[in-house]
Amino acid sequence: MRNNDNFLNTSKSLTYIRNLYANEDILLKNVRNQCLLNDRPITINPEEGKLIQTLIKLGNIKNILEIGTLYGYSTIWFVRGIENNGKIITIEKEPENAKIARENFNKLENNLSNNIEIINGDANEELEKLVQKQLVFDMIFIDADKSSYPNYLNFTDKLLKKYGLIVADNTFLSGAVYNDYLADRIRFKAQKNMRLFNKMLADKTKYQSIMLNTDEGLNIAIKLI
Ligand code: DHB
Ligand code: MG
Fold first, then answer.
1. Measuring from atom 4 of ligand 1, which residue has the nearest CA?
2. How far, in Å, CA of 63 to CA of 82, rounded?
3. Substitution candidate for ligand 1 out of 42, 52, 75, 193 with most atoms within 8 A of CB
4. Nearest atom within ligand 1 for CA of residue 43
5. According to DSSP H, which parts of 61-187 are helical?
6. Taking CB atoms and a 6 Å cutoff, what residues make up the pocket around ligand 1?
7. What are phi and psi of 213, to 5 degrees?
8. Residue in 32, 75, 146, 167 to alter for ligand 1 test, most ligand atoms within 8 A of Cβ
9. What is the position in ligand 1's atom list of the atom closest to the CA of 68?
């Protein structure tokens, strides 16, 4: 059931939090509704956007790499958290999504769209190019192909600075990481690799990390070495 704001799974407490602390402006509302209309109701939730935005401010994070743009909902939360001279590079595989995201970013206030670069391509290939360019980021947000999460995490060895922030969405994989059975749409490979990803990120010698009990699972980690 969806409520008036087109949210799934709302409780009174969550509605209270959203109204007070994580209100969406018209742009964010429109982008989330755009995802619903196109049958891709897969954005992060507003309170997750606000939490990550708060971490961006806390860490004085300036350079962000986002793996998986879709229509740019999370990118908009992030770009509003970084200082004006900061920058987000966001990778999106599907050209049509990248086009829609660019249109959405062009509606941002204060020329913030200038701080966002969309790379249209397959993340596994594009990440290698960023390594070749010797780019280093303060934060990496992982939200693309669910079977590739361990590979994306391996890239953070080179692409993320020491004490940089890793955030990853959908790490419950619709429950597949802790259930024995597979939900209809989840492939065995994705289940295996998401379990591996969560285990890799739980390594205390490499990461200060936690997994939040959100709808989809959200991991937050600091790279220690
Ligand atoms: C899917 C992808 C996401 O990033 C998400 O948050 C939810 C679902 C998907 O591909 O099904
Ligand atoms: Mg996601």
1. 143
2. 8
3. 42
4. 6
5. 73-79, 95-105, 123-132, 149-159
6. 42, 143, 169-170, 216
7. -85, 60
8. 146
9. 4
- Name residue, tokens 């990853």: 168
- Using DSSP, state whether 94 is helix, strand or coil: coil
Q: What is the pLDDT of residues 131-165, one digit of tens each?
A: 999 999 999 999 999 999 999 999 999 999 999 99
Residue 195, Cβ density class (10 Å: 0-12 exposed, 13-18 middle, ≥19 buried): middle
Read off the pLDDT of residues 2-60 as tens digits, 9 standing for 90 and up.
777 888 778 999 999 999 999 999 999 999 999 999 999 889 999 999 999 999 999 99
137-142 and 160-169 beta bridge pairing: parallel
Distance CA 44, CA 214 (A): 10
Beta-carbon neighbours within 5 Å of ion ligand 2: 143, 169-170
